Amino acid sequence: MDNGELSKKSLCEDCIAVQGLIILTLGGLGGFCCVNSRIDAAKSREDSEKLAGCVIAKTVG
Length: 61
Hints:
The protein has helices at about 10-35, 40-60. It is mainly alpha-helical.
């Protein structure tokens, strides 16, 4: 695997690392929303879904 190929082990490790970052980020976002309770949760969710859609579209496309 010296020619740049990825092993199943490295892919699994990368996936776990990304999942950890996502959990950490969502936890921070949840904490922010709890501290700043004046934020409209429904509006924030809609904006987050739009942002996630843009990120996924740019990643896949």
